[in-house]
Amino acid sequence: MTNALVNRLPAPVLALAAMVSVQIGAAIAKTRFDDVGSVGAATLRLVIGAIVLALVVRPRVRHWTRAQWLGAIGLGLALGGMNVFIYVAFASIPIGVAVTIEFLGPLALSLVHTRRWRDVTWAVLALAGVVLLGVGPAAVTAVGGVVFAVLAAACWAGYIVMNRHVGAAIPGVDGLAVSMLVAMVVALPFGLRSAVDGVVREPVLLVVFGAVAVLSSVLPYALEMLALRRMPTRVFGVLQSLGPAIAALAGLAILHEGLAPLEIVALACVTAASVGVTLSARRGRGVRSEGADPVPS
């Protein structure tokens, strides 16, 4: 994709392409869980993504303060936990269900910061989605997967908070590059052995997870950055709300994972609640930062 072509594409197309890329990467990774395990897959993605980003960015850390280091480490812990937990969830529940649950993290964070009574409606709608997921077949047959998706949601909320802090404290993307290395270190003790064993048996996995790292990290970050330069963050936030639906479609197309009717209704509730909160908050003080956080899962 050349620069000229990218510049001609509308910003919403770039934002949607970023989300599609993330979920296709996740679905491709799940196809190789039998070879490396879910944590091994998360580890390979983080290792390759962190190394590529570090080589490209070459972060300058010599003069960092203690606060900057702590911020980057905190962001890395959230990023590592989010990636590992959501991949473990993928192993036992459909990607569409897992991402819907994970999306409750940033949605809850937005609702916590609201001061409008009308947003209670969106909170109730999101709660309805949670209840429906709780009685759906995925939750009933794979409680562990739901629990790990909830942990991923908590890490995503932490990622948003820390990402804003690091973005303000460290110029450029140096903080993100260091945080990716921290996330890699978080995953290594849990997934290194299964990842190495899988790669030794099938070296082509390095190519597969290299593609996953590009699809799930490098390409989405670049597309989102370009999109945000040319579109209001409120619109970007609304488009992000399509994440669970895109994840469900990726799971259906690549993994043949269908969703039960209750799960589809739950997905629609969470998506509608996210759109409603984003639109309702357009006059709020935190709109720019709330809409600009990328979807890194």
How would you portray this structure in words?
- The chain has about 300 residues and is mostly helical.
- Helices cover about 80% and strands about 0% of the residues.
- The chain is built from 16 helices and no strands.
- α4 runs antiparallel to α5 and α7 runs parallel beside α15.
SSE order and pairing:
Blueprint: H1 3-8, H2 11-30, H3 33-36, H4 38-57, H5 66-90, H6 95-102, H7 104-112, H8 119-135, H9 137-141, H10 143-169, H11 174-201, H12 205-228, H13 233-240, H14 243-255, H15 261-280, H16 287-291
Kindly state the percentage of residues in helix.
Answer: over 70%
Q: What is the average per-residue confidence, as pLDDT, rounded to a whole number?
A: 84
The share of residues in extended strands comes to: under 5%
Give the uncertain stretches in residue-range form: 285-292
The tally of beta strands, per DSSP, is 0
Distance between the termini: 23 Å
- Written as H for each helix and E for each strand, in order along the chain, the element string is HHHHHHHHHHHHHHHH
Helix tally?
16
Tell me the major beta sheet.
Answer: none
